[in-house]
Amino acid sequence: MVYNLRQIHRNYLTKRRLCRKRLVTKHGHCNIEYGNVRYSNLFAFVLDFWNTFVEIRWRFVFVFFVASFTLSWFLFGLLWYWIGQNNGDLSWQNPSANHKVCVRNVYGLTTAFLFSLETQTTVGFGGRDITPNCPSAIALIIVQTLVGALINCFWCGVVMTKIALPKNRVKTIAFSEMAVVCLNRGVLCLQIRVANLRKSLMIGSQIYGKLLRTTSAPEGETIILDQVNVDFRVDVGKDNLFFVCPLTLYHVIDKTSPFFEMSVDTLNLQDFELVVFLDAMAESTSSSCQVRTSYLPQEIMWGYKFLPIISRSKEGRYRIDFSNFAKVEPTITASSSRCINDENYHYSTNCFDNYGFVAIDIDNPINTKM
């Protein structure tokens, strides 16, 4: 029991340490912090208030939603109180019996607030209503009705936009937790699996990657987050993917690849982050979206391959088994890309990890001639 708790705690600390090292999390969020931002730059967020409200969290949307309506009711309640005071309608002003009021049954701040709420929400309980004796009251009820309609339209737009954001669609696009390095048709490849969990297609899908690492320039300058392009493709190409079923994406590790100098022994010693992007358009909404994920060296398994996931039933229908989506199995793989690209790689005894092969030396070969 104690061992299991220690193992769980160790795994938690490992995942937390890896999460801090990432620029892009496994769910696509950018792990970056802004510092020393000037107030003039912050004011730009106020000017771009629409995108600001769309991008903030739901809890802040709810707070601003309640605050905007409550504040508008209170401000217009003060105006109704002011109109009643100027006309002598309030109870502490002791109006006469034949006094002509602007709004019936508004004789204090509380009743003015209630009339403001009933007017803007078009409830109209019937206890308080406007009279034609005050032109200012008629003008104010028109203004409050228009302001209330604008506030309703604004928050309906914000809520609908947040619900229909393309980033909500990308939650149904899943990448494999681990990447693998194995042979594919005689070529060493880095492979990643991606799946669309909805039956609606992603149109015009394009996949590409960026390798982020810290490098040193010839002038001695240290370049943080140096970006190197990493091309991914499937068997049919890398553009306009037919994303109707889970796809296995692969990057060929050749002399132009940034992984060419790496091997099974040096991979975990590297310091880089592989960020994979999937740009596509949702078929149902025609909105473009981008899915992101990242892989650290510890999340790349050398010498493994993904298990098959697509099969056909007896009725001839295609069946996708998501239980094998992230499962891998060991396979014979070159220990580095140099072994594959070397013309004499098949004579090397250290290029392939084949545990069932035993090499022996024959000093006296047998003469088979008769």
From TrEMBL:
Catalytic reaction list: K(+)(in) = K(+)(out)
Instruction: Look up and give the membrane topology term.
Output: Multi-pass membrane protein
Q: What are the GO cellular component annotations?
A: monoatomic ion channel complex; plasma membrane
The entry's localization annotation reads: Cell membrane; Membrane
* Site features described as Role in the control of polyamine-mediated channel gating and in the blocking by intracellular magnesium, chain residue numbers: N152
Main localization (coarse): membrane
Q: Which UniProt keywords apply?
A: Cell membrane, Ion channel, Ion transport, Membrane, Potassium, Potassium transport, Transmembrane, Transmembrane helix, Transport, Voltage-gated channel
Q: TM spans, by residue?
A: 60-83, 137-161
Which BP terms from GO are recorded?
Answer: nervous system development; potassium ion import across plasma membrane; regulation of monoatomic ion transmembrane transport
The UniProt GO MF terms for this protein read: ATP-activated inward rectifier potassium channel activity
Locate the Inward rectifier potassium channel C-terminal domain: which residues? 173-343
Name recorded for this polypeptide = ATP-sensitive inward rectifier potassium channel 1-like
Provenance organism? Clarias magur
